[in-house]
C-alpha cells in the first residue's frame, strides 16, 4: 500500500465543548447604567479556494482504493468503523503549509497523554497504536512538522469523506463576578443534583452514550430546561459564578462552550464548559431560516444576533426553543480547554464526533473555501457536532476569529490520519463497513 502523505497534505491545502471565589463589589450610591451589548464586527466575505485548474496542472490525483464495502444504509452507521473505511487518495507533489503543520504538531503533543489512555469510541485505533507517533512527536523539531505527519501516519477516509465544517471561537462579553446594576444575567456552575449516567455501564449497545437528569423520589427525570432555568429554577441556590450584561451574548457564549468576561473593574475572567442539562441541542439558525426570519447569508452568528436584538421578545422565545443549557466553571491558566482537557489551539484544533474520529487524531480538510483548509487535531466535541465527517474548526479569540468562525459553513472532503499500520489492520477487520445492529 503506497501512500505519500507529504503530497496529500499539500494537495488538500491547495484544493482548498471550578467554582469561582466571589469577590464582593464595591458599594455604589448611584445605579450604574446598563452596559451596551458587546459590539461585534461584520462577517467578511469568504476567501476563495484555489482554482481546480491550478491544481490539475501540478498534481496528479490517484483515486481512492476501497478496503471494504461501504454500508448500504449509511445513515444507520454509529461509528467510523461501521461507516466503512477507505484508503485515501495519494498525490505526487508536495506543496505544504509549514505554519499549519507546526501548529498541528504542537497541538498533537498536548493530546498524546490522553490519546494513549482514552478508549477510542470510533473503533479505529487502540491506545497502543499512538505510542510510536507520540514518542516521535516528543523529539521532533517544530520546523520539520510536515515530514512528521508524512512519516508517522497513513490516511483514510470515513465513509465517502464528504465533509461539512463550521467554526467556533472564544467570545469576550461584558460580565461581573458579582450581581450589580447592569449585570443581572446569571452564569451558573453545575448543580449538585445534576446526575450523568454512562449507559455503556448497562449494555455495550450504548457504548459512548450517556444521559443527564436528576433523581426525584425513586425516579430519574429530565433536568430543568432553558426556559425553566432562565425563569428562576436555579435561583437562590448559590450557583452563580458570575453575572453578564446581556442574555443574547450569554446564549452564544454557551453555543461556543467557553469565553471571557470583560470585568467592569478591568481584566477578564475566563470561563469554560463544565456540564450541560441533558436536553438536546437545537440550532436556532435552522429554525429561523425555515420560518423566514433571516434570509440567505444571514443564518450566521452575526445575522442571527442582529435579528434577536431587533426583536427582543420574539428572540427570547426563539432562543428558548433550544432547551439545552450549559453550565460553566472558571478557568485559571491556559485555555479554553477542549474535550481532552488540554487547551485548544487557535487555527489548529477541531471539534468532531468521537464516534467517527479518534480524539487526538490529525485531520486534513480540503474544503470549498480557503480558511479551514489544512491540518487540524481533533481535540474537542460539541452537542451539535454529530455524525461522520462533521467538523467545527477553532479560530481563537478576537474580532478576526469572530468574523471567520461566525460565518463559517464549508463543504468538501476530509481525511483522517491514523498511526502507521492501522489502515492495514482495518483492511482485514470483518467489522469494517458493516452496520452495527
What is shown here, in short?
By secondary structure, the chain is an alpha+beta fold. The chain contains 13 helices and 20 strands.
At CATH level 3, the topology of the domain at 5-17 and 52-163 and 350-395 and 409-427 is: Barwin-like endoglucanases
Choose one word for the global shape. Answer: globular
The largest β sheet comes out as: 6 strands, mixed, barrel
Counting helices, strands and paired strands, the structural category is: alpha+beta
- N-to-C CA distance: 31 Å
Mean pLDDT: 80
Regions with little confidence, pLDDT below 50 for 5+ residues: 1-32, 39-75, 91-95
Oligomer: single chain
- Helical percent range? 25-40%
Cα-atom Rg, whole angstroms?
23 Å
Number of strands: 20
Q: Which CATH class of the domain at 5-17 and 52-163 and 350-395 and 409-427 applies here?
A: Mainly Beta
- CATH second-level architecture of the domain at 5-17 and 52-163 and 350-395 and 409-427: Beta Barrel
DSSP strand content: 15-25%
Counting DSSP H or I runs of 4 or more residues, the number of helices is 13
Strand order of the largest sheet: 6-19-16-18-17-20
Tags for this model:
6-stranded mixed β-barrel, single chain, alpha+beta, 13 helices, Barwin-like endoglucanases
Report on the architecture of this protein.
Strand 13 (258-262) and strand 14 form a beta hairpin. The model is unreliable at 1-32, 39-75 and 91-95 (pLDDT under 50). The protein contains 13 helices and 20 strands. It has 437 residues and is α+β, with helices and mostly antiparallel strands. Helix 4 (98-115) crosses helix 5. The strands form four sheets. It has a six-stranded mixed barrel with strand order 6-19-16-18-17-20. The longest helix is centred in the N-terminal third of the chain and has 18 residues, at 98-115.
Amino acid at each position: 500500500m503506497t501512500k505519500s502523505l507529504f503530497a496529500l497534505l499539500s494537495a488538500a491545502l491547495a484544493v482548498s465543548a471550578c467554582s469561582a471565589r466571589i469577590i464582593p463589589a464595591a458599594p455604589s450610591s448611584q445605579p450604574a447604567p446598563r452596559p451596551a451589548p458587546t459590539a461585534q464586527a461584520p462577517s467578511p466575505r469568504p476567501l476563495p479556494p484555489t482554482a481546480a485548474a491550478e491544481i490539475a496542472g501540478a498534481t496528479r490525483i490517484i483515486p481512492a482504493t476501497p478496503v471494504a464495502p461501504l454500508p448500504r444504509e449509511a445513515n444507520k452507521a454509529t461509528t467510523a468503523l461501521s461507516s466503512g473505511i477507505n484508503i485515501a487518495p495519494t498525490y505526487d507533489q508536495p506543496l505544504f503549509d509549514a505554519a499549519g503543520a507546526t501548529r498541528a504538531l504542537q497541538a498533537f503533543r498536548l493530546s498524546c497523554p490522553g490519546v494513549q489512555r482514552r478508549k477510542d469510541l470510533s473503533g479505529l485505533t487502540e491506545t497502543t497504536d499512538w505510542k510510536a507517533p507520540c514518542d516521535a512527536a516528543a523529539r521532533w523539531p517544530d520546523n520539520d512538522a510536515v515530514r512528521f505527519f508524512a512519516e508517522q501516519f497513513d490516511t483514510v477516509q470515513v465513509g465517502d469523506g464528504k465533509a461539512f465544517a463550521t467554526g467556533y471561537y472564544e467570545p469576550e462579553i461584558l460580565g461581573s463576578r458579582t450581581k450589580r446594576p447592569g449585570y443581572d444575567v446569571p452564569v451558573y456552575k453545575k448543580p449538585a443534583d445534576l446526575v450523568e449516567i454512562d449507559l455503556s455501564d448497562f449494555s455495550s449497545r450504548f457504548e459512548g452514550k450517556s444521559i443527564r437528569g436528576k433523581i426525584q423520589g425513586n425516579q430519574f427525570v429530565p433536568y430543568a430546561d432553558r426556559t425553566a432555568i432562565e425563569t428562576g429554577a436555579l435561583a437562590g441556590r448559590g450557583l452563580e459564578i458570575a453575572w453578564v450584561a446581556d442574555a443574547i451574548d450569554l446564549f452564544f457564549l454557551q453555543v461556543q462552550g467557553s469565553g471571557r468576561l470583560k470585568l467592569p473593574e478591568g481584566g477578564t475572567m475566563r470561563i469554560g464548559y463544565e456540564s450541560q442539562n441533558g436536553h438536546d441541542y437545537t440550532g436556532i439558525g435552522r429554525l429561523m431560516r425555515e420560518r423566514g426570519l433571516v434570509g440567505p447569508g444571514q443564518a450566521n452568528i452575526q445575522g442571527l444576533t442582529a435579528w434577536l436584538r431587533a426583536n427582543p421578545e420574539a428572540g427570547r422565545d426563539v432562543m428558548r426553543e433550544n432547551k439545552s443549557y450549559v453550565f460553566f466553571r472558571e478557568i485559571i491558566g491556559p485555555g479554553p480547554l477542549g474535550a481532552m482537557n488540554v487547551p485548544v489551539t487557535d487555527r489548529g484544533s477541531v471539534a468532531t464526533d468521537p464516534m467517527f474520529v479518534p480524539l487526538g487524531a490529525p485531520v486534513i480538510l480540503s474544503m470549498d473555501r480557503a480558511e479551514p483548509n489544512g491540518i487540524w487535531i481533533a481535540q474537542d466535541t460539541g452537542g451539535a457536532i454529530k455524525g461522520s465527517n462533521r467538523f467545527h474548526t477553532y479560530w481563537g479569540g478576537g474580532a478576526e476569529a469572530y468574523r471567520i468562525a461566525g460565518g463559517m459553513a464549508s463543504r468538501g472532503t476530509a481525511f483522517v490520519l491514523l498511526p502507521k499500520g492501522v489502515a492495514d489492520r482495518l483492511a482485514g477487520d470483518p467489522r469494517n463497513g458493516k452496520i452495527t445492529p
